Amino acid sequence: MTSRFTRRMATRLGLAAGLALAGAAYAQAQTTLRIFTGGQQRPDVMRQIVDGYMKANPNVKVEVEVGGATSEQQQQYLNTVLASKDSALDLILIDVIRPAQWAAAQWAEPLDAYLGAEKDAIMARYLPAYRAANIVNGKVIALPYFADAQFLYYRKDLLEKHGLQPPKTWDELKAAAQKVMAAEGNANLRGFETAGAPIEGTVCTYLVPLWGSGEDLLKEGKLNLAAAAAKKPFELWADLKAANVTPPNLAEIPTDRIRQNMQAGNLIFGMTWGYVWNRLQNDADSTVKGKIGVVPLPGFTADKQATCIGGWQVAVSAFSKNKAEAAKLARYLSSPDVAKQQAILASHLPVFPGVYTDAEVLKANPWFEQALPVVQSARSRPVTPRYTEVSEIMRTNMNAFLAGTKTADQALGDMTNRLGAIFR
Amino acid sequence: MSDAIRHRLTPLERAERRLGFAMLAPAFLLLAAVVLYPIAELIRNSFHFNHLAQPWMGTPFVGFENYVKALGDDRFHEAVLHTVLYILVTVPGAVVIGLGLALLANQPFRVKWPVRLGLLLPWALPLVFAGLIFRWFFEYNQGIANAMLRGLGLEPLNWLTSPGLAFFAICLAIIWKSSSFVALVLLAGLQTIPKSFYEAAEVDGATKWQQFREITLPMLRPAIFVALIFRTITAIQTFDIPYAMTNGGPGNSTETLAMYIHKTTVDFLDLGYGSALAVLMFLVSAVITSVYLRHTRRDPGRH
Q1: Where in chain A is the domain with CATH 3.40.190.10?
Q2: Any CB–CB contact under 8 A between B59 and chain A?
Q3: In sequence order, what are the residues at sequence separation of 6 or more whose Cβ sits closer than 8 angstroms to the Cβ of residue B269?
Q4: Cα distance between residue A258 and residue A266, in whole Å
Q5: Candidate from A79, A104, A405 with C-beta closest to B266
Q6: Can you list the positions of beta strands (E) in A196-308?
Q7: A260 touches chain B (CB under 8 A)
Q8: What is the CATH number of domain A10-147+312-375?
Q9: What class does CATH assign to B70-302?
Q10: Which band of pLDDT confidence, cut at 50, 70 and 90, is reported for residue B116?
Q11: Domain A151-307+386-422 class in CATH
Q12: What confidence category does residue B111 fall into, taking pLDDT thresholds of 50, 70 and 90?
C-alpha cells in the first residue's frame, strides 16, 4: 500500500518535475529580445551580427525592429514608446547625443549592476570620448556600438586629373571645387555639400566651423555666442554659396542625400560620416567605386581642423522585461569582435582604438589609418537633458539661413534668444 | 415639468427607459474613455509644469503660466498665422475645385465608375502619402515641377526652401487632397435637386449659367455649408501634408499650430506647455464651429 502510494507519488512528482523542467526550458527558449535601430545604421549588418549571437545562445531570439531614417525621426518614435513606459523594446540603438537626456528621463536601465566588478575595466577599453558620453553622473547609461565623425569625402580621380591635392582649408576647398567644376563643364556636378535640411546633422553644419574658429557654443555652462566667432559659420556657408560651390537647394539636403549625390557621381566634395565609404565602394549602383578619397575636414587654417563626434550606443530600456538578457546582448554588441565585423561589413568606425590597426579592417577601409586621430579629436555637441530643443533651435535657424529666409544676424539673434532661455 | 412627465410614465415605459440607458452605457463609457478623459487630462496638464526631459522638476501646478507664455511666444503667433492662411486659401480653394468636380461627376456619363473612382482616389489616399508625393513633385533636382521649368528653358525654382513657394506648393497639395471629399459631399447634394426644376427652367428659356446661379447654387447651399464646416475643422488641424513636404521649413516658415504642438510635446517632451497650446487650438476650433452652426441653424427655413 505504502509502496504503491510512494511509487505513484514518485511518478507524479517525476512527471511534475519533468513538466517544470520542460516548462523552464520552453520559457528559456522563448526569451525574445527586441532591438530597435534606425534605417541608416545598417540594420542588415545588425541582423548578421545578432544571427551569430543567436547561434551561440540558442535560448535567445533577437528581433530587429527598424525605424526612422534620421536621428530625430527615430527619437520621435522612441519618445512616444518610452513616455508611455512601453515594454515592447528591450534594446535601443541611440545617437551619441542622447545619453544625457535618456539618463534624465530615466528611460535607460543603468548598466553598472550588470557589468559588476569588471565595470571599470570594461569601460577603460573604449575611446575616451565614448566612455565619457555614455557615463552620466557616474552611471553607465549605454554601451558604445560604433564610433563616427564627419570627414571630407572627395573625388580622388577628379582632383588628380586637375593636379589638385585634397584641401586642408575651406579656401583651398573653394578654389579646388571651382577649378574642377569649370574644367569639367558638367551641369550636374556640384562642388560641396553638407547637411542643410532641418535635421540633426545640420547642427554640425553650424558647430564645425564654430569650433574651427576656436570657440564653442557653451563656456562653463553659459551660452557663448556673443563673440565674432559665432558668425563665422554663416559667413563660411554664405561664401561657398556665393561662389556656386554649394548647390542652390542646400537647405533641402539631408545627410543621406550627400551620399546619394556622391554615389551618382554628381559631387566633388562631401562633408559626411563614416558609413558612406562602404556604400560608395560596394553598392551595386555606385558610379564612383575606387574613385573616392577620405581626409579630415578642412579648417579656416590648416592647423585648426574640427569635426563633430557621432556614433551609436546600445541602451537597455528601463521598461524591458528581460533586462539581464538584454544587458548580456548589449555587452556582446559592444565588443571588439563585433566592432571589427561592423568595420568590415559597413565601414563603421570602431570604438576600440586597437581595432583600427587590424589588418582585415585596414584592407576594407584603408583610410581608417588616418581616421583614429580624427575620431580622437572630434568634439561633442552640447550635453544637456534638453538636447532635442537645443538641436531644433540650431538646425531650424541654420536651415532658414541656408534657404535665405533669415540673414546671418537674424538667425544668430534668434538662436541666441531661444538658446538663452534654456541655458540660463 | 420633467417631474410631471416622469409621473405620467407607466412602469413599462420606465423599464423601457432604463433599458435604453443601459444600452447606451457602453457607447457612452467608450466615448468617455477615449474622448472625455483625454480632454480632461489635457486641460489638467495645461495648468501644470510637466517636462519629461526635466523629471526632477516634478509636475507642480502653475496656474495660467503656460497660457501666458503662449501669448508672448512669437513662434506660437507665427504658427497661428500660418494656420489661418492655410484655412483662408485651402477652404475656399477646395470648395471651388470640389464644386467643379461634383458638377463634372454629375453629368450623365454612360460609364460612371471612372469619374467616381477619380473622385474617390485622392480622398482614400493617406494624407502623409499625398504629402510625400507632392514633395517629390517639387523636389529641386528630381521633381516634375522643375523638370517642366527646365523643359521650358527656365531656371529651376527652390519650391520647398523658399517660404512663399513652399506655402503655394503645400496649399496645392492640400486642395488636391481635400477637394475630392468636398466633391463627394456636393455630389450627394446635387443629386437631391429634382430634374424637373431644370426642365422647367429650360422651357422658360434660362441659360445654363442662369440655371446654375438660380437653381443649383441655392439648392446646394446646405451641402456647401456642411462641406465648409468639415473642411475648416480639418484645416485648423493641418499637419500631415506640410510635415511631409517641408517639416515646417525653411526655418519655421510653413509650420502650423498642430505641428508646433506636436513638436512641443513629442519632440521636446514639454507636456505642460504643449497641452496649453492644444487647449488653445481646441478653443479656436470650437469658436469657428459654433459660428458656422449658428449660421446653419438660422438657415433651414429659407428653402
Answers
A1: 10-147+312-375, 151-307+386-422
A2: no
A3: A79, A83, A105, A388, B51, B52, B53
A4: 10
A5: A79
A6: 218-219, 222-223, 267-272, 292-295
A7: no
A8: 3.40.190.10
A9: mainly alpha
A10: confident
A11: alpha beta
A12: confident
